[in-house]
Amino acid sequence: MKCDPVDAILAQWQKERPDLDVSPMGIIGRMERLSKYLDRGIQETFSEFGLHSGEFDVLATLRRSGQPYQLSPTELFNTLMVSSGTMTHRIDRLEQADLVKRIPDPGDRRGTLIQLTRKGFDLIERAVEAHVANEHRLLNGLKESERKELAQLLRKLLISFEE
């Protein structure tokens, strides 16, 4: 099996501190390194559509919500796990680009809904197709069975944090 840069780090710690079980460093270090590669690879695809990852997330969340492709700002920031200020900033940028619009909430006279515009819908349709194809490419180093196993393990770890 090939070695990666994290193996060298673990070997150094093993030599210097053989009394420590540094195996978690291997897992977390690899996840951190992979995160950087994945973020870079994903952002390249988003850039082709003039989007940043946060903007893509808003458009994709609205798109996958189904017709009429609208959610309240609160639903958006809860789904995307960002602050209301961050969400307002993203919505403002997307509205200026005519990708979303604010509309009155018929169920709450004081409320507003964020809705995809036709332009936003068309853009996210193309961007999500390119994004999914790119994610398949980014995971080419794993067999399908390995992808499934990794997905299960990551789900288990994530649930342990979110319970």
Describe the overall structure:
It is a single chain. The protein has seven helices and three strands; from the N terminus they run H-H-H-E-H-H-E-E-H-H. It has 163 residues and is mainly alpha-helical. A hairpin with a 2-residue loop joins strand 2 and strand 3. Helices cover 67% and strands 10% of the residues. The radius of gyration is 20 Å and the shape is elongated. Helix 1 runs antiparallel to helix 2. A three-stranded antiparallel β-sheet has the order 1-3-2.
Keywords, please?
single chain; mainly alpha; 3 strands; 163 residues; 7 helices
Question: Would you spell out the secondary-structure blueprint of this structure?
Answer:
Layout: H1 5-16, H2 23-47, H3 53-64, E1 70-71, H4 73-80, H5 84-96, E2 100-105, E3 108-116, H6 118-138, H7 144-162
Antiparallel strand pairs: 1-3, 2-3
Helix pairs in contact: 1-2, 2-6, 3-6, 4-5
In short:
By secondary structure, the chain is mainly alpha-helical. Helices cover 67% and strands 10% of the residues. α1 runs antiparallel to α2 (23-47), α2 packs across α6 and α3 (53-64) packs across α6.
The largest sheet, given as strand count, sense and whether it forms a barrel, is:
3 strands, antiparallel
SSE class: mainly alpha
Beta-strand residue fraction: 5-15%
Give me the side-by-side strand order of the main sheet. Answer: 1-3-2
Counting DSSP H or I runs of 4 or more residues, the number of helices is 7
Low-confidence parts, pLDDT < 50 over ≥5 residues? none
Q: Tell me roughly what share of residues is in helical segments.
A: 55-70%
What is the succession of H and E elements?
HHHEHHEEHH
Radius of gyration (Å):
20 Å
* Oligomeric category: single chain
Total number of strands:
3
The general outline is: elongated
What is the average per-residue confidence, as pLDDT, rounded to a whole number? Answer: 95
Give the N-to-C terminal Cα separation. Answer: 36 Å
